[in-house]
């Protein structure tokens, strides 16, 4: 037919779950120029097949939108895929030291080069001090980076190299653990640990791009098409930009740049900090945001409001059960955080906050309520990430203030060690209120999913399984009394809801005509898969902007 427009790709004879408002399913989907051209029955789309069309017979398989992981750390994860790892294993101190020593015996790296050890499980594993690491037969500086990225452990050589000693001041957003005399014992907690790790693990843009290329393939294999890097440093942005310039970026990348309490304190005003983020946005956001080709968008400002429950740096409204003298504290003052939220709203930046406990959530929600009152026309979509322990009245506040709850399903799957630790820290009543994901949905809150990789191993479909079951495995006890999530809730949180959280629901997150052709093909139907088998779902094909970025070797078409 003269001047006819045909599909570049037609996937037919399957089930196409669109994730639109009605949860519509179709039999076929047509793609053209990187966008979704049409959805419908096989017969309805038959006329779109032309001489150049790639026609794929799904043979009953399911197509759904590509996964949008709305809070992870892909550059950290990419760097941690390389090098020596303790593999998230629960080890004693002696086992940890022995594993590192065995690695050193086969490593002839010069003495002035850092040994970076990833995958150290401190929570549910063991503490490792400088005294333990000093027993290693090496002159190299040694740093252990914990799996949750909130702790590092250093030997004495490492402390010296970083200039950390008895006179080093405690940072406002973390802790340098010390002995009775005030000497650092080698363990550093929360945001300062992240900054020290960044300092010693730097890569050039070319090196960074190489590790990112491997990481994005791993993510595509799991069906991920869009990520939000929830704490992005210029080093990571340069690596992403290098991939983009070379035409090798196949992930859609959103980024959040951190503002620290120390930065606000040192500059004396929040304006300079927000202006710095705006400058990063202008430098690193790539052109063509409305085009199907993947790019980079920096539109979020990241704040750590509190720390972690296991080391008692999560800010509670009521004291810790095993330490009644403390609730911990917020890393920002109420005035600082409120001003930062207002400035973000005026600059068009989305506030994205690390929140673990109800004290931190209350502070953040109070700041956002003032932001909504004073900037009622602002279109920014603030998100509070993690939200492990909320107070009953806070769910409604999320909904009223249009605050996204950015949640990690897998955190409801506690190991025996963590279950015992949380019972000690919180008591029986409060542990029942951990990871209440269902209450957010039931309160009308927009819920977006995050894997927080590499805090947890990269396993999206296992994480979904935990969301459906609230347990690590059928052999583990179920956490608390909150209800299980539905398949629809779990998948929408990782598609259209996550797109909304990133301000991109107009172009991605669902399979509707005109949107980017970001989609995946699964080996089975998730809506009929038993919850305890959800982690066995495999992605057969991943497309970003209509281009195949991953295909399984077993794919029959």
Automatic annotation (TrEMBL):
Residues 56-549 form the Amidohydrolase domain. One of its GO terms (molecular function) is hydrolase activity, acting on carbon-nitrogen (but not peptide) bonds. CDD domains: YtcJ_like. Pfam families: Amidohydro_3. InterPro entries: Amidohydro_3 (IPR013108), Metal-dep_hydrolase_composite (IPR011059), Metal_Hydrolase (IPR032466), YtcJ-like (IPR033932). Keywords: Hydrolase. It comes from the Bacteria. This is Amidohydrolase. It comes from Salmonella enterica subsp. houtenae serovar 18:z36,z38:-. The lineage of its organism: Bacteria, Pseudomonadati, Pseudomonadota, Gammaproteobacteria, Enterobacterales.
């Amino acid at each position: 037919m003269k001047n006819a427009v045909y599909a570049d790709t037609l996937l037919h004879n399957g089930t196409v779950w669109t994730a639109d408002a009605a949860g519509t399913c179709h039999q076929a989907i047509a793609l053209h120029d990187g966008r979704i051209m049409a959805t419908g029955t096989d017969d309805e789309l038959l006329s779109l097949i032309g001489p150049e069309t790639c026609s794929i017979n799904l043979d009953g398989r399911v197509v759904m939108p590509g996964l949008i992981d709305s809070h992870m750390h892909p550059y950290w994860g990419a760097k941690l895929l390389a090098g020596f790892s303790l593999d998230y294993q629960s080890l004693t101190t002696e086992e940890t030291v022995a594993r590192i020593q065995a690695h050193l015996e086969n490593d002839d790296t010069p003495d002035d080069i850092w040994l970076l050890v990833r995958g150290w499980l401190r929570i549910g594993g063991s503490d490792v001090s400088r005294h333990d690491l000093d027993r290693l037969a090496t002159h190299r500086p040694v740093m252990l980076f914990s799996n949750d990225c909130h702790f590092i452990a250093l030997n004495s050589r490492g402390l010296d190299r970083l200039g950390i000693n008895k006179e080093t001041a405690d940072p406002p957003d973390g802790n340098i653990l010390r002995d009775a005399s005030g000497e650092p014992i080698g363990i550093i907690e929360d945001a300062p640990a992240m900054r020290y790790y960044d300092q010693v693990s730097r890569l050039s843009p070319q090196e960074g791009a190489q590790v990112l290329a491997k990481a994005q393939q791993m993510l595509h294999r799991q069906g991920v098409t869009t990520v939000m890097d929830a704490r992005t440093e210029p080093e990571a942005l340069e690596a992403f930009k290098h991939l983009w310039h070379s035409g090798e970026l196949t992930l859609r990348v959103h980024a959040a740049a951190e503002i620290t309490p120390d930065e606000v304190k040192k500059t004396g005003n929040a304006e300079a900090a927000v202006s710095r983020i705006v400058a990063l946005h202008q430098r690193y956001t790539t052109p063509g945001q409305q085009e199907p080709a993947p790019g980079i968008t920096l539109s979020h400002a990241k704040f750590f409001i509190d720390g972690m429950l296991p080391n008692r740096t999560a800010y509670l409204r009521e004291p810790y059960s095993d330490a009644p003298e403390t609730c911990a504290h917020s890393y920002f003052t109420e005035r600082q955080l409120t001003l930062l939220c207002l400035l973000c709203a005026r600059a068009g930046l989305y506030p994205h906050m690390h929140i673990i406990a109800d004290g931190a959530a209350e502070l953040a929600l109070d700041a956002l309520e003032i932001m909504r009152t004073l900037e009622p026309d602002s279109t920014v979509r603030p998100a509070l990430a993690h939200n492990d322990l909320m107070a009953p009245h806070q769910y409604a506040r999320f909904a009223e203030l249009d605050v996204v709850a950015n949640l990690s399903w897998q955190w409801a799957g506690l190991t025996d060690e963590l279950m015992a630790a949380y019972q000690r820290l919180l008591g029986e009543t409060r542990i029942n209120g951990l990871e209440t994901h269902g209450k957010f949905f039931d309160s009308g809150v927009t819920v977006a999913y995050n894997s927080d990789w590499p805090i947890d191993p990269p396993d999206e479909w296992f994480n979904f399984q935990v969301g459906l079951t609230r347990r690590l495995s059928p052999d583990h006890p179920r956490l608390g009394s909150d209800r299980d999530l539905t398949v629809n809730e779990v998948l929408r949180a990782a598609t259209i809801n996550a797109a909304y959280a990133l301000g991109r629901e107009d172009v991605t997150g669902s399979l509707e005509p005109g949107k980017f052709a970001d989609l995946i093909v699964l080996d089975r139907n998730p809506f009929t898969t038993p919850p305890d088998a959800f982690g066995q779902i495999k992605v057969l094909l991943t497309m970003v902007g209509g281009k195949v970025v991953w295909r399984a070797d077993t794919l029959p078409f």
